[in-house]
Amino acid sequence: MFEEAICSYLQTHRFESLNLKAVLFDMDGVLFDSMKNHAAAWHEAMKRYNLQMTPEEAYLHEGRTGADTINIISTRQRKTEATAEEIEKIYQTKSEIFNTLPKAERMPGAYELLQKIKAEGLTPVIVTGSGQKSLLERLNKNFSGIFKPELMVTAFDVKHGKPNPEPYLMGLQKAGVKANEAIVVENAPLGVKAGVAAGIFTVAVNTGPLPDEVLKQAGANLLFPSMMNFNNNWASFYHVIK
């Protein structure tokens, strides 16, 4: 399975090899079991401003910048984009609601996988659509010594969020690697599309309620049912790359 997926990727992009040096991780739904909190916060925040967005829909927008998400909902319902002031208020409300919810735990298998990646001398990079100011503190607390500030791409670093490839292209740039020297680990269809559009081998982990087919249709090169399953299969996967 792994050999076939890698060969298909190499043929599509006309690369001779997948010379892995860095692993680019999305955060919510990959490193933290936090998407249910984001979904609930988006739903409640939108409702307070007379906008409709189900918790389930939040998973489809995961990876977008907050402004893009708000504008999509606003345009759908009001036939116009939100003003800059509205975007600021809605996103602030969403953040406040999110911060009242129980803190999300590490995604099972994520820490173990990162330990294996570090042991192989590979560089872990964060590529998230989040704009949380406590991001670095949260990562350091849960994944001590693994991530560096200079190897993080957040909503503040890009003009275009996922599914645009800009976040992952910037991740490559910060890591100092080429597209065939990295892999992306994503749980969201928009994030998968962004990784694929950047020309990077993209691994999907289905940690949410969406059907596998949604992630496959987004272009995932490989699909695992959980981070723990990916962790359990890491040795076999990395052996094929080596």
Keywords:
242 residues, alpha/beta, 6-stranded parallel sheet, 6 strands, 50% helix, globular
Helix content: 40-55%
Oligomeric form = single chain
Which structural class fits the helix and strand makeup? Answer: alpha/beta
Give the helix tally.
11
Terminal Cα separation, in Å?
A: 16 Å
Low-confidence stretches: none
Listing every helix as H and every strand as E from the N terminus to the C terminus, the arrangement reads HEHHHHHEHEHEHEHEH
| Apparent shape | globular
Radius of gyration computed on alpha carbons: 17 Å
**Main β-sheet, in a few words?**
6 strands, parallel
Strand fraction equals: 5-15%
Strand order of the largest sheet: 3-2-1-4-5-6
Mean pLDDT comes to 93
Number of strands: 6
SSE topology:
Blueprint: H1 2-13, E1 22-25, H2 35-48, H3 55-61, H4 66-78, H5 84-100, H6 110-119, E2 123-127, H7 135-142, E3 152-153, H8 166-175, E4 182-186, H9 189-197, E5 201-205, H10 212-217, E6 222-224, H11 227-241
Parallel strand pairs: 1-2, 1-4, 2-3, 4-5, 5-6
Helix pairs in contact: 2-3, 2-5, 4-5, 6-11
How does this model look, in words?
The model has no long low-confidence stretch (mean pLDDT 93). α2 (35-48) crosses α3. The chain is α/β, with parallel strands linked by helices and 242 residues long. 50% of the residues lie in helices and 10% in strands. Strands 3-2-1-4-5-6 form a six-stranded parallel beta sheet. The longest helix is centred in the middle third of the chain and has 17 residues, at 84-100. It has eleven helices and six strands. It has helices at residues 2-13, 35-48, 55-61, 66-78, 84-100, 110-119, 135-142, 166-175, 189-197, 212-217, 227-241, and strands spanning 22-25, 123-127, 152-153, 182-186, 201-205, 222-224.
